[in-house]
Amino acid sequence: MEAIQIQDKNIIRITDILEQIKALNKMIDLYKSDEGSSSMLSQYDYMKREFVEELKPLLKDFQITIDAA
């Protein structure tokens, strides 16, 4: 029973991370067109990479391996 609860928490966290990445992608697209915002673009890109790194071990529990650039 406890394993199911942990799995459910992982699914909730995975969903949350994917929603965060989706929002970051929108912001990255917005700032790509603005040449004066390289700092913001770098910050959003860094946050996205951090979320992807957090996803990797969570997805391993589902036997999914990701190799993101």
What features would you highlight for this structure?
elongated
- Count of helical regions: 2
Beta content comes to under 5%
Fraction in helix: over 70%
Q: Mean pLDDT, rounded to whole units?
A: 89
Shape summary: elongated
Helix/strand order: HH
**Number of individual domains:** 1
Give the gist of this structure.
This protein is mainly alpha-helical and 69 residues long. It has helices at residues 2-32, 38-60.
Describe the protein in words:
- It is a single chain.
- This protein is mainly α.
- The chain has one domain (2-60).
- It has 2 helices and no strands.
- Helix 1 packs antiparallel against helix 2.
- The model has no long low-confidence stretch (mean pLDDT 89).
How are the elements arranged and paired?
Layout: H1 2-32, H2 38-60
